Inverse folding.
């Protein structure tokens, strides 16, 4: 929607009210007023981060934690606008949690408050906290610029959608998921989420909302504040810091807060629909708040047909077990035996948590069985939501037998459909999906589930994680004999370590059969930290396994085939080289583009070799481990960007450059766009031209970070594949280089691995796997 002033029908109908408004008669003005409120909050955020940096720098850990909590409120009000594209990009740098990134907390891109939280509370590492606080401050400074005078261009639709989405998110996800895992300050977060929504909403009321609708929102907000006050009487005041520790809030209190938040969210939705009745409302935001995790591997599947089939067969047996163990739950419910039903629920939850390792192959059943409300636009109010978590809610929170039986019907049907697929349709499964599933689940547990209490109401998360580990082991076992001894030893050891950890965390509850689980709410932060470490270790060892599987599945080059163009200047034309189609939007720099070597020398792309350590945009040096393009002979068109600082960058037009916290294709850069230079300095583009030059090169460094090419920060990604997918595809290869020790020959352009890399059209195919 263009940034024009809009006066919708509902507003016209309420013209009398509008005429008396001092705040303005248009939705855009109402939006701008709300953004100005948040700009003030951003101005308040900046000194709080200065105080945090000072406290961290003083070396006083307790003072640093206090300053951290004190610094949290303003952004939690501002994040209501993450629906706006520019602000959403900044949100990913300020407030994302590890599961929004392919590498979880190992991902170099992960930054913001939660990284500081981890450094201060879980790791107690002030050195790390100083760096993460510094990065956070840079992003917040950019945020304040974007909010001033609504430079980000927030539209009325974005503002209203943001209000509705955040209100539902608090109800559907945050209240159950412990937003602040390590600092335990979640109540503080919720309060400021509410305040942010309210700050944006108030101007809309004045801009033409029908009085009855406005009154509905007002009373819902009052009820919400009352519910909050009941949970945290001392913390409800706007300026109160800190809040009551969220881990001490009971299930009943969480339920009351959640309920009030849903009522408020629904009233906001009505208000938005009334205000935008002439617009078609856009769906939920694509901000960091809702993203999942995926870490694809690329495998030549037919090389592992037997191993894959063995894993699926194990899951088919688990699926039948799942059907059996749900029977006692139904029996207990039918008898109205609530405590028996809860015991049967706990005993019946395991098998699917193993099978879900392969959930990507049966998304429909997975959603019907295991989705949580936060996956739906309107949370628990969404008619589409059902499944095992609806059973959980009915048993543990609401004690509602008919609701539990109805939800169980849906689960039974979906499980039956799943068993049929596992028994009869091997075409749905492949070695690639198997490894993708193992990598994704082993990362999801540490990056997301541990912090989020997978089973909010039943408190059975320790069981969930245990079954997740068993599922991964079941899929991994058939592959184990095909791995090298060191990697097999590493994966086995990490699986064994998880089992041993359960022996201490949940002593007396047998690993294979025990169903008397310790409440997850009763685990300490240190214990959660050890679960986290154990699963991250598993994930890293599986990455090494994935790298070996890729290498083993790759056919050896046939003898006599002439090598493809190599980065060190091998033959220009070769039948096995992948040509760069004119339209593939290659991700490249010309032969003459330069990078800086460790030691200070400048070298042209054409003279760069695998293993050379080159300067990255962050200022450090990292070795080149692969080229996704290296062709010295092709003549191609490049965009040439000249900056006020005198730098000249040439790159293909679809090559992404970091701009304002996001990525912009070189071909979309215009005069006045600010590019990033060494040391984080920026300089505006003063001239844009199209030039013809020789060679196409795209080196990737081991740390996966932005490069400095011709003195300008550049990504190594292209518009032809999403950067997240490209990074994930490269991750196992990076691990292989670092750990398995591939020769530079194997990684040069002459290797068949070449074809597996993200370049042009080939990547589209990989993405669709
Ligand atoms: C603290 O963090 C720094 C920077 O990330 C790291 O180099 C160091 O090893 C960490 N210290 C400990 C004790 O983990
Ligand atoms: C914001 O707008 C006001 C009024 O137009 C103007 O005076 C001020 O300079 C603007 N601020 C910025 C940072 O652009
Ligand atoms: C939720 O709140 C509404 C309105 O305040 C109330 O009618 C309803 O009973 C509440 N439900 C629960 C489960 O507390
Ligand atoms: C590793 O685990 C696999 C599968 O569980 C097993 O078959 C194999 O014997 C184990 N190897 C070692 C060295 O422990
Ligand atoms: C946590 O577990 C311990 C021992 O298992 C028990 O004594 C304690 O009451 C539990 N605390 C809570 C809050 O459940």
């Amino acid at each position: 929607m263009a940034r024009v002033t809009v006066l919708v029908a509902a507003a016209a109908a309420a013209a009398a009210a509008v005429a008396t408004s001092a705040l303005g008669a248009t939705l855009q003005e109402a939006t701008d007023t709300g953004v100005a409120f948040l700009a003030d909050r951003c101005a308040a955020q900046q000194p709080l981060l200065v105080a945090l940096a000072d406290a961290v720098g003083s070396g006083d850990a307790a003072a640093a934690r206090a300053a951290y909590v004190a610094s949290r409120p303003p952004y939690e009000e501002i994040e209501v606008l993450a629906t706006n594209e520019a602000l959403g990009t900044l949100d990913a740098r300020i407030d994302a949690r590890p599961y929004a990134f392919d590498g979880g907390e190992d991902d170099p891109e992960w930054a913001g408050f939660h990284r500081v939280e981890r450094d201060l509370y879980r790791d107690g590492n002030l050195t790390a906290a100083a760096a993460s606080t510094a990065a956070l401050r840079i992003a917040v400074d950019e945020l304040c610029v974007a909010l001033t005078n609504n430079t980000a261009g927030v539209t009325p639709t974005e503002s209203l959608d943001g209000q509705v989405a955040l209100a539902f998110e608090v109800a559907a996800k945050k209240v159950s998921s412990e937003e602040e895992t390590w600092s335990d300050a979640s109540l503080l977060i919720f309060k400021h989420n509410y305040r942010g929504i309210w700050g944006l909403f108030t101007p809309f009321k004045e801009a033409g909302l029908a009085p009855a609708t406005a009154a509905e929102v007002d009373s819902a907000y009052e009820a919400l504040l009352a519910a909050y006050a009941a949970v945290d009487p001392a913390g409800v005041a706007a300026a109160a810091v800190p809040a009551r520790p969220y881990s001490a809030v009971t299930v009943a209190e969480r339920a009351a807060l959640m309920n009030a938040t849903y009522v408020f969210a629904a009233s906001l939705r009505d208000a938005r629909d009334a205000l935008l009745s002439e617009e078609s409302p856009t769906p939920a935001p694509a901000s960091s708040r809702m993203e999942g995790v995926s870490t694809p591997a690329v495998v030549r599947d037919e090389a592992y047909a037997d191993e894959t089939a063995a894993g699926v067969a194990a899951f088919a047996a688990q699926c039948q077990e799942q059907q059996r163990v749900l029977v006692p739950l139904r029996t207990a419910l039918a008898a109205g035996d609530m405590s028996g039903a809860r015991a049967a629920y706990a005993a019946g939850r395991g098998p699917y948590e193993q099978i879900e390792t392969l959930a990507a192959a049966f998304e429909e059943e997975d959603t019907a069985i295991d989705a949580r409300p936060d996956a739906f636009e309107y949370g628990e109010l969404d008619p589409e939501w059902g499944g095992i978590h609806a059973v959980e809610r009915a048993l543990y929170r609401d004690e509602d037998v008919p609701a539990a039986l109805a939800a169980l019907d849906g689960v039974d049907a979906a499980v039956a459909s799943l068993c049929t697929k596992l028994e009869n349709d091997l075409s749905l499964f492949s070695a690639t999906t198997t490894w993708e599933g193992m990598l994704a689940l082993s990362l999801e547990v540490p990056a997301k589930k541990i912090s989020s209490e997978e089973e909010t109401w039943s408190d059975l998360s320790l069981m969930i994680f245990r079954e997740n580990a068993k599922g991964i082991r079941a899929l991994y076992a058939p592959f184990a004999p095909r791995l090298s001894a060191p990697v097999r030893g590493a994966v086995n050891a990490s699986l064994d370590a998880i089992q041993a950890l359960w022996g201490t965390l949940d002593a007396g509850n047998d690993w294979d059969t025990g169903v008397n689980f310790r409440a997850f709410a009763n685990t300490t932060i240190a214990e959660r930290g050890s679960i986290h470490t154990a699963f991250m270790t598993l994930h890293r060892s599986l990455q090494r396994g994935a790298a070996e599987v890729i290498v083993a599945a790759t056919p050896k080059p046939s003898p006599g085939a002439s090598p493809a163009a190599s980065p060190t200047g091998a033959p220009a034309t070769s039948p096995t080289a992948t040509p760069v189609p004119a339209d593939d939007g290659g991700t490249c720099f010309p032969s003459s583009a330069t990078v800086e070597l460790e030691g200070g020398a400048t070298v042209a792309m054409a003279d760069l070799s695998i293993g050379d350590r080159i300067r990255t945009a962050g200022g450090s040096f990292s070795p080149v481990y692969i080229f996704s393009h290296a062709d010295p002979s092709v003549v191609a068109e490049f965009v040439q960007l000249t900056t006020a600082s005198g730098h000249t960058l040439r790159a293909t037009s679809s090559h992404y450059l970091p701009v304002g916290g996001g990525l912009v294709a070189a071909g979309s850069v215009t005069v006045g766009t600010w590019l990033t230079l060494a040391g984080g300095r920026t300089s505006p583009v003063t001239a844009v031209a199209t030039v013809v030059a020789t060679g196409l090169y795209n080196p990737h460094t081991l740390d996966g970070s932005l490069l400095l090419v011709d003195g300008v920060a550049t990504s190594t990604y292209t518009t032809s594949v999403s950067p997240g997918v490209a990074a994930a595809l490269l991750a196992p290869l990076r691990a292989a280089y670092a750990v398995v020790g591939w020769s530079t020959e194997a990684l040069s352009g002459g290797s068949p691995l070449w074809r597996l890399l993200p370049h042009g059209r080939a990547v589209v195919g990989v993405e669709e796997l």
Remarks:
- Residues 1-25, 278-297, 556-585, 739-769 have pLDDT under 50 and may be disordered.
- The chain has three domains: 2-276, 289-552, 594-768.
- The two ends are 35 Å apart (CA to CA).
